[in-house]
Amino acid sequence: MDYLNTPIFGFIISIIAFQIGLFINKKTKKAIFNPLIIAIGLIMILLLSFNIDYEIYNKGGSIISFFLGPATVVLAVPLFKQIERLKSSGIPVLVGIIVGCTTAVVSVFFLSKLFGLTETLSTSLLPKSVTAAISMEISKQIGGIPALTVAVTVLTGITGNVIGSYVCKLFRIKDEVATGVAMGTASHAIGTAKAMELGEVQGAMSSLAISVAGLITVFLAPWLLQLLS
């Protein structure tokens, strides 16, 4: 069982679990069977069934986490292809992202108060709508629990991936730029994966929204937290 104590174990089972998730998703063609949800479930079942400590798994799992930052940067490629479209819609896009970030932070703050959550839990939830690499750092900065923040961030992304396009249809949002900005601002990289399936413009605008929303939230979350408190 010495192989369990090597990074290869966590890395390999993460890849295998995600591939199984992709296979099931392609076969069912149902958004609810998101590959990430399936992979998380499979890994949890494996660790619990064989009594494997999370720290052992994370020796390899952390290798994948390391690539979150570079993967986010690569999303700039589709944006570059749509640079002319961005120039013509720059102000509306920026305003939309700012409003989205503000709404995300303020709504979490007041809902946390409504449901009587502790201050630590509340601050851990505030940066949930930005990509994990950024949300962890914001959580540390404002006194949250980074591990909890990552979990909620992933859940937020999956939710956006699964229902984002349906919400846009429900409210008759047909504009490609608006759809992309909404999904990227609300559900970061996981939502962007869905936006890219919808179209190149949606994917590009969603990619932009991730970066800008992360930058805005870094400054906005601590300031709004102090102001509202």
What does the secondary structure layout of this molecule look like, with pairings?
Layout: H1 7-28, H2 35-49, H3 54-66, H4 68-74, H5 76-81, H6 83-88, H7 90-114, H8 119-125, H9 132-142, H10 146-170, H11 176-198, H12 200-228
Structure overview:
With 229 residues, the chain is mainly α. It has two domains: 2-66, no CATH class; 73-228, no CATH class. Helices cover 83% and strands 0% of the residues. It is built from twelve helices and no strands. It has helices at 7-28, 35-49, 54-66, 68-74, 76-81, 83-88, 90-114, 119-125, 132-142, 146-170, 176-198, 200-228. The longest helix is centred in the last third of the chain and has 29 residues, at 200-228. It starts with 6 loop residues before the first helix and ends with a helix.
Gross morphology is: globular
Distance between the termini: 51 Å
Provide the structure class: mainly alpha
Tally the helices: what do you get? 12
Q: Care to count the β-strands?
A: 0
Order of helices and strands: HHHHHHHHHHHH
InterPro entries: CidB/LrgB
Protein name: LrgB family protein
Subcellular location: Membrane
Membrane topology: Multi-pass membrane protein
Give a quick precis of the structure.
It is found in: Membrane. The protein has 2 domains: 2-66, no CATH class; 73-228, no CATH class.
